[in-house]
Every structure is written in C-alpha cells, then in structure tokens.
Write a structure and sequence with these properties.
Blueprint lengths: L8 H16 L6 H8 L3 H7 L3 H25 L5 H18 L1 H9 L3 H5 L13 H12 L9 H21 L7 H20 L2
Helix pairs in contact: 1-2, 1-4, 1-6, 2-3, 4-5, 4-6, 4-8, 5-6, 5-8, 5-9, 5-10, 8-9, 9-10
Length: about 200
C-alpha cells in the first residue's frame, strides 16, 4: 500500500526539526528522529529533505527570520534615535542568543556567506529584511555620513562580530555560569563599548 503524503508534510518535518533545534540545539537533529516524530517512513522524509544538511539549512533560514523579527521588534520598543536603534539591535542580538540558544546556534552554524549576502525569502523577517540587513540599516543610520574609512557593510560586520563574540562567551565558556544580572550588566556595557567604537570615541 502506498503511503499517503499530506500536502504540508514538508512544513511538518521542518516544524519538528525546528522544535528539536529550539529545545536541544542543531546537533540533536536527525532525519531519523524527525521522520519518527512525523509518523512517516524514512523514504518519505528524504523525499522532502535529501539529507540532514538540507533540513538544517531550512531550520537555519527560519531561525534567521526569527532573529530578524527580534531585531526589528527591539527597534520598535527603543527610543526614537539613531543611537538607540543601533543599541537596540545589538542588545536584541544578545538577548536572542540568551533566550533561544539552540536557534542562535542554528543561525551561526548552518548559514553561509551566500545566505548572508543574498538571503533567501524564508530567511527574511516580516518586514522583508534579513537579520544582517536590519543591522546594516541601524549602522547606516548611526553613521549617516559614512564617517571613517570603513564601509557600512564592513562596519556592520565588525558590530556583528563584537556582539556575537560576547554572546558566545556567555553561552559556551566558563562565563556561562555567571549570574544572569552579571551577564546583563556585561551585555549593556558591551553595547555601549561597541557604539563608542563605531563613533570613534
């Protein structure tokens, strides 16, 4: 008897993989576990996602869209100024890493330069912007005249690298055991440091 394939099965498989990633990180995702939870055969799962890497790329794109939405929401809830927008984006990135460790790891570990420079539609947030584009806009608004020798794209990469560095330290090093108030103090200090660096102070 032929297995009946629901039209939304690809979405269902992605949803399961996404939930596993959110709970345990991308390393915990396997096609076998995803197909088991979906109640379909391995052959059916492979029909929609040819291998684990293909499935994790879909998870990464969705997580990246979630990050874009988180950064956009952070701007919406900040004060209306060039400084506060960039500050909100930096802090929003650090808070996304804190609140969604597995998804944060998926964004970082399963993305690519191509995805960064030419984001797929599924990696874009509800505004149509990808996470790096939200950051680029905030950096551009913060330094509207393109001060200094850095291009806006290069400056955005440096801001991203700085914020990502602290986020990773607070997750994957002995600093992870610090009390949350101490971590938040470091996050807010770091954002001020990053903005001062970009401003040339």
């Amino acid at each position: 008897m032929t297995e009946s394939l629901p039209p939304d099965l690809a979405d269902r498989l992605l949803e399961i993989a996404y939930d596993i990633t959110a709970a345990k990180g991308p390393a915990a995702v396997s096609l076998r576990e995803v197909q088991r939870r979906a109640g379909v055969s391995a052959a059916t799962a492979y029909w929609h996602y040819k291998d684990r890497a293909h499935l994790l790329l879909a998870v990464s794109r969705r997580a990246t869209a979630d990050l874009a939405n988180a950064l956009t929401d952070a701007i919406k809830h900040s004060e209306s100024s060039r400084t506060s927008d960039l500050s909100a984006v930096c802090l929003g990135y650090l808070h996304f890493a804190r609140d969604h460790v597995g998804l944060f790891q998926a964004v970082v570990l399963n993305s690519s330069v191509e995805e960064l420079l030419q984001p797929s539609q599924s990696a874009r947030g509800t505004t149509g912007l990808a996470a790096f584009e939200v950051l680029q806009h905030a950096v551009s608004d913060f330094r509207p005249n393109g001060e200094f020798e850095l291009t806006n794209s290069d400056a955005s990469i440096h801001v991203w690298a700085a914020c990502h560095g602290l986020a990773a330290l607070l997750i994957d090093t002995p600093m992870a055991v610090l009390p949350e108030p101490d971590k938040e103090r470091l996050r807010r200090q770091h954002v001020g440091f990053v903005l001062d660096s970009i401003a040339g102070r």
